[in-house]
Design a protein that fits this description.
30% of the residues lie in helices and 32% in strands. The protein has 8 helices and 18 strands. About 4% of the residues have low confidence.
Length: 370
């Protein structure tokens, strides 16, 4: 409770309108100043007093110049981005100088995130004239899936001597939805070829290779699709149609459960499911997602990309119990396949039909997300 109140006070612009932090050089500089002052008091040497006064004047000058550089700087976020765990993503931040006289120097902008492990690589604006605006890309890398809260945009500077980092916080609370990290070296097509039987038909005409039917010729149809036998039989131009490949469904079931508390294996399985969904999205299949948390819902499978990946970002890891095993068996038996079951470990789920394929991260050689 006390730490939460303290963090609120630190973030508050009313209590602390400027956030100040010592740099590495600043710590050494202040230690040298303290040492010089201690030596001057003990020896009474005028030269040491003179050096102490120079060091203190540099600290005072640094405070005035840094305040002039950051006083009129305003930061703003240009929007949230899609983020996968472990992969850098660029976020756009805008820095504007609202002043009329003084310029801003050595300004950086970053997100004010208090979660450990989030890496930020901000760019620097060395000179921001009065009334000017700059858009800065910010590279963000999140360590794990889930939701990460940011409290706003932080504009900071180390001008002029890099002794202190002075910052202003512009409150803009938001939440990053971090999707599971994609596993390297996972080929989706071999997994699909291992499925027994074909994926469900799209049941509509489109662009493909399998014959679908014959219809009347329309203006704009390519001549190579003419069906000459049907044209001669019916006495009017007829063309061939092919089945649309973009609608074939493949259902992906991720078993978000751990055996004996081995959460790392479950996290790898969730990352493998996200990798499979991204691979299917770029191919000729239409993926659907299910998990232990979708069992019993009116619509047990999700089909929109953002909803599927967001579900994987939020889904918890359950203990692997008999009830969880029964949920998986019931889902596979109730809804027709083909099913691609992603399990954390071998032996957790047994294939219940020709249209069910069970894979684990170890089966496909999936490692830790890059």
């Amino acid at each position: 409770m006390k730490s939460r109140v303290l963090r609120r006070l630190v973030r508050s612009n009313r209590v602390l309108p400027r956030k100040l932090r010592f740099t590495r050089e600043g710590k050494y500089f202040v230690l040298i100043a303290f040492g010089m002052g201690f030596a001057a008091i003990n020896t009474g040497n005028n030269l040491l007093y003179l050096l102490l006064g120079m060091l203190l004047s540099i600290i005072l000058l640094s405070g005035f110049l840094s305040e002039a550089a950051i006083h009129n700087a305003v930061g703003r976020r240009l929007g949230l981005v899609e983020a996968f765990a472990g992969a850098p993503v660029e976020l756009g931040l805008e820095v504007r100088n609202t002043g009329r006289r003084f310029s801003g120097y050595s300004l950086r902008a970053r997100e004010h995130i208090e979660v450990d492990g989030v890496q930020q690589a901000p760019r620097v604006v060395f000179h921001l004239p009065p009334g000017a605006t700059r858009t800065l890309p910010l590279s963000l890398t999140f360590p794990s899936r889930g939701r990460v809260r940011t409290y706003g945009v932080r504009v900071e500077t180390e001008f002029p001597f890099s002794l202190f980092e002075k910052a202003r916080l512009f409150e803009a609370p938001a939440e990053f939805v971090v999707w599971p990290g994609l596993l390297p070296g996972v080929a989706v097509e071999p997994l699909l070829r291992r499925l027994a039987g074909e994926a469900e038909s799209a049941n509509r005409a489109g662009r493909g290779l399998d014959p679908w039917g014959v219809r009347d010729f329309r203006v704009g149809d390519p001549p190579n699709r003419m069906h000459w036998k049907a044209t001669a039989k019916r006495g009017r131009p007829m063309v061939r149609e092919f089945e649309d490949l973009q609608g074939r469904e493949v259902r992906v079931l991720v078993v978000n459960a751990s055996v004996d508390g081995r959460h790392e294996a479950a996290e790898r399985a969730i990352s493998l499911a996200a990798t499979v969904l991204e691979g299917l999205r770029d191919g000729e299949y239409r993926p659907r997602l299910a998990s232990l948390d979708t069992w019993g819902a009116p619509q047990p499978t999700l089909h929109e990309r953002a909803r599927m990946l967001t579900h994987l970002a939020d889904v918890p890891v359950h203990p692997w119990t008999d009830d969880a095993r029964a949920h998986v068996d019931d889902l596979l038996a109730t809804h027709a396949g083909p099913w691609l079951v992603v399990a954390p470990e071998a032996g957790m789920v047994a294939p219940s039909g020709e249209r069910v394929l069970v894979v684990t991260p170890d089966d496909v050689g999936a490692g830790v997300p890059a």
